[in-house]
Amino acid sequence: MKQTERLLIHLRRWRSNPLAFIREVLNVEPTDQQTDIILNFIQYRFIAVRSGNKVGKTAVCAWLLIWFMCCFKNARVPCTSPSESQLKKGIWNEVGIWYRNLPEYFKNQFTYTAESLTNTRHGTAWQSYIKTATKERPEVLSGAHSADIFVIMDEGSAIDGEIINNILPLLGSINAYSMIIGNPMRTSGYFFDLFHGKPSIFKKLLHYSAEDSPLMPQETLKAWLEAFGGRDSSYYKIHALGEFPASDSDQLISLYIIDEAKNRRLNKDEYEDADVIWGVDVGLDHDASTLVKRQGRKVYDIKKWRKVKDTVKLCGLIQEEYNKELKKYEEDEEHKDEEDYVKTHKLPKRINIDEIGIGRGTVDVLKGWKLPVFGVNVGWAPKEKGRFANLKAELWFMAKEWLELEAPQIPDDQDLITDLVVPKYQTNPSGKIKIESKDQIRKRIGRSTDTGDGFVLTLYRPKQVKVYI
């Protein structure tokens, strides 16, 4: 029997058995959870998967994509998500890893690029590609017609129902498949409704916990339990247990909004014309001192100093950061006359420092050193006196609105993410909104929200004009 004939026999077998293809061609042994996803996929063809992190669902999508491309002629495999950056660093990065692991026979049949995997002889008629679909642009996949089609949707919680409606006409053939995967971030929307009884094309709903995954380090789970206040916290439910969070009426900022900001990637022209503002939260005793740097819609850097118990030493560290930018400013002669030169060199227009208690000394020292410091007392009266109990509450609600409305980018910093999702709010006897105190938060999670407080301070403007850039 010729090698080509043997290969055709294997292809017919692999076509109905992706698990065998994954083991024999990609040379990888899936975990029990991954195996369960694959078996359900081949049985039901349309499946939805919600899970915690480190279950390996993204790898499964990549394996099945490559299986489909290798075993079905003129295959089309569009991959979508509301976030382009998530697509590229998630599924498509994983596809690249396993494409490079293919035997030469299969690898030579395809060309892999940053956005597509294309059969070298058949071109776009036999192709997998990534395309961002959003509520505003749900139709981007509607042209992907083929008898052999596999549609993959990542970040299920952010997938809008209109996107599903647009792909339905593509999925009528006997060789049509689809998967929607994600962490259960939201308590509303298509993904939430899907797992709460709404009829859909997805015939099998699967749920996996990271606690049962051998891919998840136990040290990480332990750290999450300590950082977020136990198994009932929204973060642990979503990212570890794969469960939808409770809709806490007193939670200020939703985790899915923070997650969107973390995954967003702004172009330089979307923030470079804005002023650079720094926020400093001083914590010389048990807490860390933090410096958060923001330019317009982008939080681009965070500095943290722990166990710095001396005010002058802390001031020296802040001045050192300032001098780094000042040196760039002074050394670059080419753009000295440009109006926005300071902005392009990240020199802060203002450094907002919480001046309550020990912060007062930091403000005084840095003012003496001629840094552009502004002392902020979060106990001050707010601009909206009829709504908020103090400036702290107003600033935190400004942070909530900034995250929800400005489409910003924040770094993937665990302390910042924790700090933004942890604070709760309530109304005082006079009906005004207040945010729980640092002591209350420290009692609940074992530390204060130092990084979050530093970030919130970057949103303060003297006279409280409600403009963030």
Summarize the structure in words:
There is one protein chain. With 469 residues, this protein is α/β, with parallel strands linked by helices. It folds into two domains: 3-212, P-loop containing nucleotide triphosphate hydrolases (Rossmann fold, 3-Layer(aba) Sandwich); 265-464, Nucleotidyltransferase, domain 5 (2-Layer Sandwich). Helix content is 39%, strand content 18%. The protein contains 18 helices and 15 strands. The chain has helices at 3-16, 18-24, 32-44, 57-71, 84-99, 104-107, 161-167, 190-194, 218-228, 234-241, 255-263, 311-331, 341-344, 359-368, 391-405, 414-421, 438-445, 450-457, and strands at residues 46-51, 76-81, 110-112, 116-119, 123-132, 148-153, 175-182, 204-208, 276-281, 289-295, 298-305, 350-354, 373-376, 425-427, 433-435. It has an eight-stranded mixed sheet with strand order 3-4-5-2-6-7-1-8. The protein has a five-stranded mixed sheet with strand order 11-10-9-12-13. A two-stranded antiparallel ribbon has the order 14-15. Helix 16 (414-421) crosses helix 18. The radius of gyration is 26 Å and the shape is elongated. The chain starts with a helix and ends in a 12-residue tail after the last helix. Mean pLDDT is 89; it is low at 464-469.
